């Protein structure tokens, strides 16, 4: 196990070309599971290759256990990588694929056999050791690729979208296997994915990337509950967060968010004290589907609004109910026995404490006066402790 730190890492492919990676700052402790998540082309695989040494960085430093490895060749970094394509040798058996790296390192044959047996038992592939990759399913090939990396016992494991070639059911199964494996081995791991569900379920820490920039770095709970901007809020969560464009009104020093239905039913959601001038800006209200409550008939208050159900989508454990507010489709996640039918009217309740506000032009979070975001508060506490 090892710590991993990226200090102001940059990557460009030539003079005059835009930076692929821009001022990447990440630090994880020994044994932590880091997820790099973002859309295609955001730079996450490039960053993974830079950590592995497959690509050189243009600036900054990569440190493992406080030692700068930026100039080392891949073979000297003591890092193992599992590729999206598995990269197994088709003419070798599973046993030989797992043992290949150990033979290159000139390990004793008895020690190689012992290590192959250990890994095969861990991944439950003992019965596959005599087969070749062409005789295996996608999930079995992925296990073998993982076994080859595990057999080396490196300081850090890198996974580059390892489940993207698997079907939906197998992806769920393998996701669980990877999490169980990490819990058993406590290995420092960096995992690249574009799947936000993998990011939320696997990671101790998550770095959300866009256009080569870390948009937010924190725990899955921090990123889900306290997104730094509109991009992070929209990318993380399934179904995604609702975004409702609206007008803000100020009365007696308090701000109110105005919500309206197509039938002109209206509510003014009190938001409390906020910075001056917001009522002149284009604002987007964000709230997650499960955070919109439904009141019984006649039990609404000033923070509720009656709306007609347009569409329902049963998913089994939940039913997604869609209404229209401020000419925008809004999703509510309800229990199946509480879900109304299309055409019925329900009373939606909004908890002002759950509501997030974003600047419509910049996408940045707008905060209430007298409060700090979770990350800002944690940073301030750490600074005070340091002094």
Automatic annotation (TrEMBL):
NCBIfam families named in the record: PRK11650.1
GO molecular function: ATP binding
Domain ABC transporter: 4-236
The protein's name: ABC transporter ATP-binding protein
Species, as recorded: Pseudomonas zhanjiangensis
Keyword Nucleotide-binding attributed: yes
Keywords assigned: ATP-binding, Nucleotide-binding, Transport
Domain of life per record: Bacteria
Coiled coil, from the record: none
Annotated CDD domains: ABC_MalK_N (cd03301)
InterPro entries in the cross-refs: AAA+_ATPase (IPR003593), ABC_transporter-like_ATP-bd (IPR003439), ABC_transporter-like_CS (IPR017871), ABC_transpr_MalK-like (IPR015855), ABC_transpr_MalK/UgpC-like (IPR047641), Mo/tungstate-bd_C_term_dom (IPR008995), NA-bd_OB-fold (IPR012340), OB_MalK-like (IPR040582)
């Amino acid at each position: 196990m090892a710590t991993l730190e990226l200090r102001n890492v940059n990557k460009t492919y030539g003079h005059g070309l835009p930076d692929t990676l821009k001022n990447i700052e990440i630090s994880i402790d020994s044994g932590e599971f880091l997820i790099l998540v973002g859309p295609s082309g955001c730079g996450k695989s490039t960053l993974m290759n830079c950590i592995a040494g497959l690509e050189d960085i243009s600036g900054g430093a990569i440190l493992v256990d406080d030692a700068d490895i930026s100039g080392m060749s891949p073979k000297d970094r003591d890092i193992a990588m599992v590729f999206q394509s598995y990269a197994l040798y088709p003419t070798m058996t599973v046993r030989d694929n797992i043992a290949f790296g150990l033979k290159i390192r000139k390990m004793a044959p008895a020690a190689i056999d012992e290590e192959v047996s250990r890994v095969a038992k861990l991944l439950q592939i003992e019965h596959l050791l005599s087969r070749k990759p062409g005789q295996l399913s996608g999930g079995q090939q992925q296990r073998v690729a993982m076994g080859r990396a595990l057999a080396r016992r490196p300081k850090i494991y890198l996974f580059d979208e390892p489940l993207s070639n698997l079907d939906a059911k197998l992806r769920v199964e393998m996701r669980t296997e990877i999490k169980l494996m990490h819990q058993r081995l406590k290995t420092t791991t960096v995992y690249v994915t574009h799947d936000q569900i993998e990011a939320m379920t696997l990671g101790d820490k998550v770095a959300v990337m866009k256009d080569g920039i870390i948009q937010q770095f924190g725990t899955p709970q921090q990123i889900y509950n306290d997104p730094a901007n509109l991009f992070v809020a929209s990318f993380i969560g399934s179904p995604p967060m609702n975004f409702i464009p609206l007008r803000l009104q100020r009365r007696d020093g308090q701000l109110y968010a105005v919500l309206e239905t197509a039938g002109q039913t209206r509510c003014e959601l009190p938001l409390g004290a906020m910075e001056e001038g917001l009522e002149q800006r284009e604002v987007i209200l964000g709230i997650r589907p499960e955070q919109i409550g439904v009141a019984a008939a006649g039990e609404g208050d000033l923070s509720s609004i009656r709306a007609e159900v347009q569409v329902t989508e049963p998913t089994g454990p939940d039913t997604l109910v869609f209404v229209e507010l401020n000419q925008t489709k809004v999703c509510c996640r309800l229990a199946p026995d509480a879900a109304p039918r299309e055409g019925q009217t329900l009373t939606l309740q909004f908890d002002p404490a759950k509501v997030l506000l974003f600047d419509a032009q910049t996408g940045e979070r707008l905060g209430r006066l007298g409060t700090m975001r979770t990350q800002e508060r944690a940073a301030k506490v750490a600074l005070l402790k340091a002094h």
